[in-house]
Amino acid sequence: MRITNFLLILSLMCCFAACNGSGGGVEGIFDDMQKALKNGDEDLFKQHWTENGYRNALVKKSGMSGSELFQEGSGEGWYPRPDLSKNRHVGETLIVQAKIWSIEKNRSVDEVYFLLVKENGTWKVAGGGEDIEEVLAADTNLLSQISRRESD
Asked: Residue 3's Cα: distance from chain center in Å?
């Protein structure tokens, strides 16, 4: 019983941390991205991305830049629908698994992994891709860049 309570408390703490201690946080990011893609609101979409991730595809083979993702998602009628129960904390980053939801087909048409980092205390999307190994590699590269900046 104690172990069950401990695991429950630990999972609630992780969920609370992933949401920045509020109802918004990571879930709010994806809610805003969905709204932005449906309404063609690039400014709303872009505010949840790091500057580098919006311009450049950090996940090389299976990924897109945020700008490319916005153009394709808003043009083709799809958006990411995250499964927040599958969030993975890796160091100072968060990997969020999401289904790509087609508005027209009303079903999932793909699955991707988004890489989020904290920027000024707020989670931001740094990139993403279909291949989890590529996303983890991008995560490793990003963590080493963060580490180098902090040691300068």
From this structure: 30
- So what CATH class is 2-151? alpha beta
- How many residues appear in the chain? 152
Q: Which is nearest to 100 in space by CA: 110, 90, 91, 92?
A: 110
CA distance 126 to 56: 9
Q: How far is CA 7 from the centre of its chain?
A: 25
Q: Are 62 and 130 in contact (CB under 8 A)?
A: yes
pLDDT class for 4, splitting at 50, 70, 90?
Answer: very low
Structure tokens at 96: 């969020």
By CB neighbour count within 10 A (0-12 exposed, 13-18 middle, 19+ buried), where does 75 fall?
exposed
Helix (H, G, I), strand (E, B) or coil at 140: helix
* Interval 1-29 mean pLDDT: 50
Q: Supply the pTM of this predicted model.
A: 0.78
> Does the pLDDT at position 18 exceed 80?
no
Does residue 12 register a pLDDT over 50? no
In the chain, the amino acid numbered 5 is N
